[in-house]
Amino acid sequence: MISLRARSVAAIGALALLAACGGVGNRGTTSGFVSGDGSITRVDAADREKAPVLEGEGLDGKPLSTADFAGKTIVVNLWGPWCAPCRAEAPALEEVASEYASKDVQFVGMLTRTKDPASAIAFNRKFGVSYPSFTDQGGKLELAFNDSLPTTAIPTTWIIDAEGRVAARVIDKVSASTLANLIDDVQKSTA
Question: Is this model's pTM higher than 0.70 or not?
Answer without folding.
Answer: yes
